[in-house]
Structure prediction request, 316 residues.
Amino acid sequence: MSYKKESAGSADIMFLREAYQEALEGYQQGGVPVGAVMVRNGKVLARGRNKRVQEGDPVMHGETDCLRSAGILASYQDIDLYTTLSPCMMCTGAIIHFGVKRVVVGEDVNFPGNIQYLRDNDVDVVLVDDEECKKLMAQFIEERPDIWYEDIAGNEKV
Amino acid sequence: MSYKKESAGSADIMFLREAYQEALEGYQQGGVPVGAVMVRNGKVLARGRNKRVQEGDPVMHGETDCLRSAGILASYQDIDLYTTLSPCMMCTGAIIHFGVKRVVVGEDVNFPGNIQYLRDNDVDVVLVDDEECKKLMAQFIEERPDIWYEDIAGNEKV
Prediction:
């Protein structure tokens, strides 16, 4: 896909590294290495990671696990969501449903996700194209294609 | 909204009643009364209900809780999902992501959801327009508008 590479600030890169740390720890647990953090007022509010392997839970992707960890919130309008991988359709729908307005995405090379659909729904998406995120995900897909293609339900496009 | 009312078979009505039972028990727990069941080969494979109140978990809607309960599945192509209320964007995205091909919806009067978007993504949607589903949801919204509008993040349209 050829989205333009939007500018990420230094704080964005720092928080993306925190999402990457979640992905890395997930990988070390044998899980799908996708991590996420939610940030409000310059502070990490919640962290999450894909838990398909760790908890046998297909709906706990990085983003949904992070939304769960944040608990009940009155509003998501002032929250930035950082995720290492471009969001699948479930997580895209969650972002739109809860009204998160800004998402920073590590990469969309290993999985295109739904960046354009988020933008079409007035979500500000920054695509970082981060080397570490790309490398970790590519390594996992090479090592465990069975888990990865099951996680995306055999669908490489959404 | 004015979707055509498609024909639901007697088995559909029976399984929708099981989803309604989940919604009713959720209501009796003080929760948002949305229930779901997943059916494969004429048998209920998994059950779910909205657990925002019961577990303080914003991502456990009827459909996502049901997908979680089903655990890890190789494929969702032969599964019918029954839900008492038209799916929000998160649950719509989950249905599309996992490749569920048929969804039976109790009603879309209290919440329009995303029936057309599901159909645009090749999901066969049957809208029952069920009186019990409509009545229970309307009662909850009247009694606890605070919880309901928080559950849909203040957005009555998606």
Remarks:
- The two ends of chain B are 12 Å apart (CA to CA).
